[in-house]
Amino acid sequence: MNWDNIVRYWQATLSAVEHLGGLTEKLIVEGPATEAEISAVESQLGLRLPASFRKTLLTASRAVDLYWQLPDQKVLGAPFENSLYGVFRWSLAEIPEIEATKQGWITNTFPTWGGAEAETRWDDTFAFHMTDCGDFLAIDLSRPGEETVIYLSHDDDTYNRCPLGWDFQDYLIRTAPLGSPGGEWWQWAPFLPPSHLCIDPNCPNALQWRRALGL
Fold first, then answer.
1. Which is nearest to 85 in space by CA: 158, 186, 215, 204?
2. In sequence order, what are the beta bridge partners of 139?
3. In angstroms, how far is the first alpha carbon of the chain from the final one?
4. Is 3-213 a domain of CATH 3.40.1580.10?
5. What global pTM score does this model have?
6. Which of 65, 98, 164, 185 is deepest in the core (most CB within 10 A)?
């Protein structure tokens, strides 16, 4: 993964949105985390962070915060009616709170819904981003040696546990050229191939999207 290219994609997206009259917030990209900082969080969680996420923290950034919003009058049409803003962030310091919130769904909410089927259960995942609607971007830990980034939907919709990238760094490589268009399923679903196997930044919808934004 070329980290400088990832950041350049984000910066270009903010410039493009501003050119279209949209709203942006200052891109926050903190420096790399230290081994001690990561170990402290791992001790708090009682687990070792997934290798691809851990590597990104150590070599790229401990925290990222990206936000942009297209102007209301900018209508891109189908299938982008719901892709009007992008929110993407991670923070090593916030991981314990995110994981605790996810665990709350597992222990307190799912059992009241009459039990959790295998496709709904989240106890084999590591969450690194919580969306505004209460869903999560997470890393699948169910298969040793694999770290697929997946979507966790508390509504158990079509996209629950949908693969978005083969690991955390692959997820960044796939989404950054699109401006990381939000974590909600309706924001990234237009960029899935028919197989629903990982976001494709070069699919026809993605190319149309990038042209519309001027990326």
1. 186
2. 126, 149
3. 20
4. yes
5. 0.92
6. 164
